[in-house]
Amino acid sequence: MSRLLEVKNLKTSFSTYAGDVQAVRGVSFHLDKGEALGIVGESGCGKSVTMMSIMRLLSDNGKLIDGEINFDGNMISNYSERQMESVRGNDIGMIFQDPMTSLNPVFTVGDQLIEPLMKHRKIGKKEALEEAIKILELVGIPSPRKRIKQYPHEFSGGMRQRVMIAMSLICEPKLIIADEPTTALDVTIQAQILDLMKNLKDKLNTSIILITHDLGVVADICSRINVMYGGIIVETGTTRDIFYKGRHPYTWGLLNSVPNPKKKNKEKLQPIDGQPPDLLKPPVGCPFTSRCKYSMKVCLEKQPPLFELSEGHRCACWLCHPDAPQVDSPIRRGRDGE
Ligand code: SF4
After folding, report:
1. Which of 8, 60, 111, 132 is an S-S bond match for 68, by CB 3.0 to 4.6 Å?
2. What burial class does residue 322 get, using C-beta atoms within 10 Å of its C-beta: 0-12 exposed, 13-18 middle, 19+ buried?
3. In the predicted model, is pLDDT for residue 335 greater than 80?
4. Which pTM was predicted?
């Protein structure tokens, strides 16, 4: 597979009255063509800011401090705002958590689909209408010819999210970034939307970055996962590496807070106690220290590098140092359905 996106040493901060919040502190990762990558972590870990930095959609007080973003062979981190406008929507589509904030309530769904089609593909209104109907059909909207004339409020939450997905696909982007696309939906609709995304990815060979706080959501779609904490990537690997051979205590915490639907007996989920670090003054050492029961002296003094555990599986924890004490993974047995 060839490379679609390469991010190197991305750093983003936000100026506030209290000082600069260092939201992303040197993040590097890649995505291949046709691949789905999950970015997982709790609120404030930097996962959405990383994506907004790539799309150059930061709020006015946000600033890309450092880093390189290469997209499909072009160094888009050097692009002007005008060049980025053509990348957004044309080459990279986005799906947000709440479709109502992205859909305009005063225009019909059809108007909102047709306009970008006419603009980006330079086609007439009639052709754009037929294309839009086809896309609504593709994302599973029943009676698309009739529903294309309706307004967003006439759609249910799940159907609105399907419209949002249709909008992100409209210009056949090479990459779709989905930021918590199912968080606002109930569980059955969540499963339908995730199935839809998976089918579309397989059918259209579009690359996907799926941002979520829920490891369970990425399991079926993504082949690789980046776990983020405190503005950095603390573990990266294949979905199998993370689920079965996860080595970072934060990954263990996340895994132990995912319900296992295959377990017959109800199991108690274990929350991760404590609070994330204050990124106004990020810790010198490991950002997970204050919540980690394995914390050692070195953890307070030095940020651990990403230790290579196997090809593509890396973990930023001093426990992965060859001289560190051996600690057994506390991940509950039976994630595979025992
Ligand atoms: Fe815990 Fe230390 Fe590993 Fe950080 S580096 S996760 S504090 S053991």
Report:
1. 8
2. exposed
3. no
4. 0.91
